[in-house]
Predict the 3D structure of the following.
Amino acid sequence: MSESMQKAVWGSNEFHPNCAVDIVAQTCLAVPYIEGGTGEGKTQLSEDLGRVINYNYTEINLSLCDAIEIGGVPFPDFNAGHTVVLPMDWTDCVTKPKQLLHFDEVPCTPAENRPIILRALSERRLGAKPFAPDLIIIASGNPPEMTPNGTVFERSMMNRFYHHKWKLPRQTWLAGMMNDCNFPSPVVPVLPADWKAYRGKWASLIGSYVNSSGNFVSPYNSDEEATAFGTLRSWHRLAVCLAACESVGAQPEVYAEICEGTVGEAFAHEFLENVASHELYDPEAVLDRKVTVDFNSRIDILHCLPSAILRVLGTKQGMSLDRFDAATEFFQSMAEVHADLVLEPLGAFWELQPKGYQFSANWISRMGALFAQVNPTT
């Protein structure tokens, strides 16, 4: 992999592969499903995430719930002339802010309850209760053959999850056991407020891959045991999850985990090879004015550059007044040709403004005029 590729796409923070669950869960779009053996610390990861980001934690063991405990109790409303559903008290958490809901023992969910869970995952609501926008959901379970009444997921259920194969945290466990059961604090990647600034880049890279390969939907094979596969839904969610991944500077191995668990191993390998083959601009060279960007070059290559520049400027060693000044020139030049590509990243760029730096009135005026052309209603 070229040095410019490393700087433009991948990060270098060494997270444990299980941190992919933390990253995906915080998007509040994709739901991670953790599959692993019993007693291996899967539930602890969810509790740790909730504690680190200051979320209230609620765990529901689906193997112990009947349909009423999840979907609610039908009750006649004689005044309205129809039947309403009275939810269980535990469901209050889904409408409140800063809540983490952990569905455990998912493969043991009785068949009559699965449509309720499927709707919760698809529509983010339980009965008449819509989920809060920031509700985080994590699911977990043991392989079906290891659980009482466990069954494999239906294909429609499979496609709602990011499927994560649990990696035993052996070194962390050993460190705690060798220190009188004082286990080290978990390393939890926390998404920054501007993480969605990276979404357009990954959506463009996925679009470029699909357009060039013409292959993005996994054919149905009843004999295949794959849990993750390509659909329009899963590719869209992958773009969101990879944006979150880049926002925390994760290393390539975490990207691979997320890709394989979202669209399947074959598509993941093809897509990541396609991304690695791009001749991308080195963001540091752009900020140091060592290269000139051709703003009429391939749009998928240009789409990668704003987020890469943000990532460099977001570090102490990458930021300087000269580099920030170069970045203002870059964003204006790109906006002149592709204003739509910098709409999302510009907000994050504004937040990086160094102390003492003043945007020129001409720059603010010009950028405002360009964005008004893209979105006349604002």
Remarks:
- Residues 4-8 have pLDDT under 50 and may be disordered.
